[in-house]
Specification:
By secondary structure, this protein is of the alpha/beta class. It has one domain: 3-Layer(aba) Sandwich (Rossmann fold). The protein is 41% helix and 17% strand. Strands 3-2-1-4-5-7-6 form a seven-stranded mixed β-sheet, sandwiched between helices. Helix 6 packs antiparallel against helix 8. 44% of the residues are buried.
Length: 239
């Protein structure tokens, strides 16, 4: 419709493949509803290999992230922090503020504060800190302030450990595109199998089936909203 503003969703994951594993079905569903999608990987993924050098791997994973995002017409944003070096400091907070300002989203999805990896946990905290600051005019960074205070949601943890969902999204119609997005992360498929004995397609469908069973649908993804003033809590934000 003419004059209608396209809603924007920004997903922020620590590593290239985190978003694909945890919330890509929801992102694809948003895209199907006409939302503009941004996918940010905070880390450059330069440690997840026994074959490539760190420099080679960072370039490979950047390319994989872009190709994965293209499958749903999403914009890929790269924060470029080396794996294992996401820390809670002012420099990192400013970097995440600028990630948010590039998208100026209505909604942000990121890691749960209770996830298993320090990069995940610190990304979650940095996003929480940066969300409220991103639209403040007097907080000067390389990008202009966001237009609004976005809603903030936490996605499921890996395998759902230490995560109690408050909301679910039915991804029955998007679980296959989610798998295709993860399969673009070719450098990680063998790594995850070797390190965690994880077949990614089986993993995605098992977790989505379990969350779907909880939600009364075939496949689902699970979320928790970060409640914070002054956002109203009387309407559903998730698709």
């Amino acid at each position: 419709m003419k004059g209608v503003t396209k809603m924007k969703v920004l997903a922020i994951g620590a590593h290239p493949d985190d978003l694909e594993l945890q919330c890509a079905g929801t992102l694809a569903k948003y895209k199907n509803q006409g939302y503009e999608i941004f996918m940010c990987h905070v880390c450059d993924g330069n440690k997840g290999s026994k074959v490539h050098t760190s420099e080679e791997l960072a370039k490979i994973r950047r390319s994989e992230a872009i190709e994965s995002a293209k499958l749903i017409g999403a914009t890929s944003i790269w924060a470029g922090i080396p794996d294992g070096e996401v820390v809670l400091d002012l420099k990192s907070r400013i970097k995440i503020i600028d990630v948010i300002r590039q998208a100026s989203p209505d909604l942000i999805i990121t890691h749960s504060p209770n996830d298993y990896h320090s990069d995940h946990i610190n990304t979650s905290r940095l996003v929480f800190e940066a969300t409220y600051l991103s639209d403040l005019v007097l907080w000067k960074t390389d990008y202009p302030p966001s237009e609004k205070l976005p809603y903030l949601y936490y996605m499921d943890t890996l395998a759902g450990v230490n995560f109690v969902p408050e909301e679910y999204v039915d991804i029955t119609d998007t679980v296959e595109i989610k798998i295709k997005m993860m399969n673009k992360m070719k450098s990680q498929l063998g790594w995850l199998k070797d390190m965690h004995n994880c077949d990614t397609e089986d993993f995605i469908k098992t977790v989505a089936k379990f969350r779907g069973f909880q939600a009364g649908v075939e496949f689902a993804e699970a979320f928790v909203q970060q409640k914070m003033y002054p956002q109203g809590l009387t309407k559903r934000i998730l698709p």
